[in-house]
Amino acid sequence: MAKNRTFTMLKPDAVENGNIGAILELINTSGFRIVAMKLTQMSRKDAETFYAVHNERPFFGELVEYMTRGPIVAAVLEKDNAVEDFRTLIGATNPAEAAEGTIRKKYAASIGENAVHGSDSDENAAIEAAFHFAGRELF
Ligand code: DAT
Ligand code: MG
Questions:
Q1: Domains in the chain: how many in total?
Q2: Residue 104 marked in a binding site
Q3: Predicted ipTM?
Q4: To the nearest 10°, the Cα dihedral for 62, 121, 88, 115?
Q5: Which atom of ligand 1 is nearest to the CA of 87?
Q6: Can you name one GO molecular function term for this protein (predicted)?
């Protein structure tokens, strides 16, 4: 399997709760290489664009409020099978359904505030990485 890349955000709740270090430790020990990383905050327009696929869903307003309420850590991660393996590491969208040992099981409070994002396809990983990072910021 060739090395490929995924995009992640440690969401505002993860930053507020002081979980950046613990989550990065899990990411590193799970074999992902950090290719790009920064602390940033999404504007309302950023969040509406990033999550546009969900804009008809009943939770869209709450999602935008949550994702814009404080800083996030945005990062690009590299590993064999990165997209699928990172989805496994973060666990189910709803932390109540997430497997033991996953990031969401350990650090997420609810389906709405679930600590971490992971891209769902190689195509979306590339789009999401380009949304947050310029080419010169990828190492
Ligand atoms: P994931 O983040 O696991 O890819 P998703 O793409 O279906 O999940 O949804 C994006 C985010 O929207 C998710 O991380 C949290 C929020 N969300 C999804 N379903 C929700 C629901 N039923 N109620 C509240 N928030 C929800
Ligand atoms: Mg998703």
A1: 1
A2: yes
A3: 0.98
A4: -20
A5: 3
A6: ATP binding
